[in-house]
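Pilot study result, target chain (233 residues):
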Amino acid sequence: MVNKTPLVLLPGLLCDRELWRRQIETLGDVASPWVADLALDDSMAAMARRVLAAAPPSFALAGLSMGGYCALEIMRQDPARVTRLALLDTGARADSPEQTARRHGLIELAEKGEFHGVTPRLLPLFLHPDRLKDAELTGRVTAMAHRVGKEAFLRQQKAIMGRIDSRPHLARIGCPTLLLCGRQDQLTPPALHQEMASLIPGALLDVIEDCGHLSAMERPDAVDAALRIWLTE
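Predicted structure:
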């Protein structure tokens, strides 16, 4: 009988369980996945506390984008419970002034009652340019954002803007760590992952070709393969 690893999956901004659908299906023979709800809190600290309160005593932890920011906060709050860490399409730096300004623009749009206009603006940042005409994929991303909704979007943006610079804490990470991102990720490019890899002891870096920010949905085969190795070796 296979001893399955408890696996906590943390979604990104405007994402839910659908982000990790393929990984839940394909890694079920080696892991017991659980997707946390990151739509309820407006700070990374509160998000992390909620995840830790509901998670198993020890677990592997994977977060994409905002989920990666939350994962790094979990590593500050209770690192002993995390047996393995995977950070996908994310970064350790705090928000730059340019990023914060863009977020305020999206918040203003949502507060004007134009929340449905937010997703078309984000899609070119979320996906590889070649996938923007993929109606099935863009439809899944758009439906996911609408399920998360305006109020959760506002809370999540506040949490993201308020996150700290995690780089000074990375050297303390002592569990096996995978860093993964799309080669064409516009929001958290490979350079940010290379920076984290240089600061986390023994971290492995995997860059997925022809892939944007939502790697788990865009290139599920490559992400599944990388996570399987991370979980089992």
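One observation from the pilot: The domain at 5-95+160-232 is CATH 3.40.50.1820 (Rossmann fold). A full batch analysis is planned for the follow-on phase.
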